Structures are given as C-alpha cells and as structure tokens.
Amino acid sequence: MSTTAPHPVVDQGSIPVWRQLGLVIVWQMRRRSVELPLLVLIQLLIPVATVVGFGLLVGHPGPEAGLFLATGAPVIALIAVGLIATPQFVSQARTEGSLDWMRTLPVPREVFLVADLAVWTIIALPGVVIGAVVGAWRFDVDLSPTWWLVPVALLVSLTAAAVGYAIACLMSPVLALLMSQVLVFVVLLFTPISFPADRMPQWAQELHQWLPLEPMAQAVRAGLAPHDFTVPGRSWVVLLVWCAASVIGARWALRRRG
After folding, report:
1. What is the reported pTM?
2. Which of 40, 197, 247, 249 is the right S-S partner for 166, CB 3.0 to 4.6 Å?
3. What crossing angle do the helices spanning 149-170 and 63-80 adopt, rounded to 10°?
4. Per-residue pLDDT averaged across 236-243, rounded?
5. 3-state SS of the chain?
6. 67 with 60: CB under 8 angstroms?
7. pLDDT score, position 2
8. What region, left, alpha or beta, does residue 6 occupy, with left being phi > 0 and alpha being psi -120 to 50 degrees?
9. Per-residue pLDDT averaged across 119-146, rounded?
C-alpha cells in the first residue's frame, strides 16, 4: 500500500461527525480492497476449520459438549479477527509508516479510531453465521438465535478489535506480532470457549473471571442457545469494562503518537 495516496476530502468545519465517520469507513474499505476478499475468506474458514478440527478430536460428543463446540466456533471467529488479525495489520501499518501518514488526515483521532474498529467489526460478523450453521449441522444441535444476538456479536467483535488495536498501538510492532501469535494458542486451547470452565485448573478459572474471553463466549452462547446458557451479571460488567478500557487505550495511543 502506498503511503502517498491522496487524502479523502473531509472538511471538519462543514461535515457532521457522522458523515466524516462514514467517509473514513468507506475510504478504509477501499484502501483494503486488495486484501479484503482474502480477509473475509479466512474469517469464514476459521469457524469451519474449528468445527471440523474439534469434530475430528472428539468424534461424536454428547449434547452438552456438542452445544459448547457449536456455539464456540462463532466466538472464535469473532475473537480471531480482533485479537489476531487486527494487531498484525495495525503493526504492519506502523512499520511501513502508513499509520503515521493516516494520522495526518483532516479528521479527529476519535473518528479515525471508530472507523477502523468498525471495519474490523464488519469483517468479523460473517463468521458468526457460518460458525453457527456449520456447528449446528456437524454436532446435530438445535440453536435458537435471539434478537439480541446481533448487538451482542457487535459488542464482542468491537471488544476484541479494541483489545487488538490497543495491543498494536501500545506495544512495539515486533512484540505486538508475537503477542498475536501467542493469542492464537490461548484462544483455541486454553480458554473456556469450546468447553466448560470447570475443566480448567482452579487458578485458570479465577484468571478468566477477570479476562474478557470467557464473558465473550458466555454472551454469544446465550444469544445462540438461550434455553441452555445464561450470562452472569459479573460477565457483562467485565466485558463492558474491557471494551471501554481498550477503546480508551487505543485512543490515548493514537493521540499520544499523533
């Protein structure tokens, strides 16, 4: 990507903030037009690969295990884009200098940040549908998606993208890339997303009570299978706090470096 591309024409004094946001989102989509199809394809393959891979490991699970696996695949798809892909692409932008160039755009830092997070959120959402459909088919479970699954998926995707964005902005590019690789194994193997938390050691269960990953999984599971899963009030608080803190951290990093 060339860092000498023309700025989008945005006059802060005459264009409302919501209009500026829309323009920057469209510009960000166009800027990633080359890799966007591949990103969406990979994002769709993640839940399918998760369902197929875990299916080979567990064979024919019981109803409870099947529900966890079927509802876990969409969560992994949402988290993977935010915590794994976002730090990698933002770190790449920092290394090549394009992120510094984008800070010169005639829009507030907050508009640029929200637009970038919105793009990653939009990219992550198709995996929810594919993961739920493939998981329900593979493990022969009945899902009953609720109307509030959409805002929950948006919240989870935004939180994951905000955390990933904050990691990329607050850490060095090399360290952020290494962190994203570590998170791949943590999310897939050591997080109670595709299995109950009580299978983990006590110290790990207590640790996940303060991390956003288990609350993310609980929220999406409850939205997909409300008759089988619920979300504790504490999990909502943890999830919202992490979302707000990550957005604030990414905003602070952008303003500090701008």
Report:
1. 0.82
2. 249
3. 50
4. 93
5. CCCCCCCCCCCCCCCCHHHHHHHHHHHHHHHCCCCHHHHHHHHHHHHHHHHHHHHHHHCCCCHHHHHHHHHHHHHHHHHHHHHHHHHHHHHHHHHHCHHHHHCCCCCCHHHHHHHHHHHHHHHHCHHHHHHHHHHHHHHCCCCCCCCCHHHHHHHHHHHHHHHHHHHHHHCCHHHHHHHHHHHHHHHHHCCCCCCCHHHCCHHHHHHHCCCCHHHHHHHHHHHHCCCCCCCCHHHHHHHHHHHHHHHHHHHHHHHHHC
6. no
7. 45
8. beta
9. 87
**End-to-end CA distance of the chain, in Å?**
20
133 burial via Cβ count (<10 Å: 0-12, 13-18, 19+): middle
Inform me whether the pLDDT recorded for 5 exceeds 60: no
CA distance 38 to 36: 5
Residue 205 is encoded by which pair of tokens?
């269960």
pLDDT at 14: 63
Which amino acid is residue 255, in one-letter code? Answer: R
Model confidence over 62-115: pLDDT tens digits? 888 889 999 998 998 888 888 888 888 888 777 877 777 777 777 777 787 788
The CA-CA-CA angle for residues 131, 52, 76, to 5°, reads 40
> Which residue type occupies 26?
V
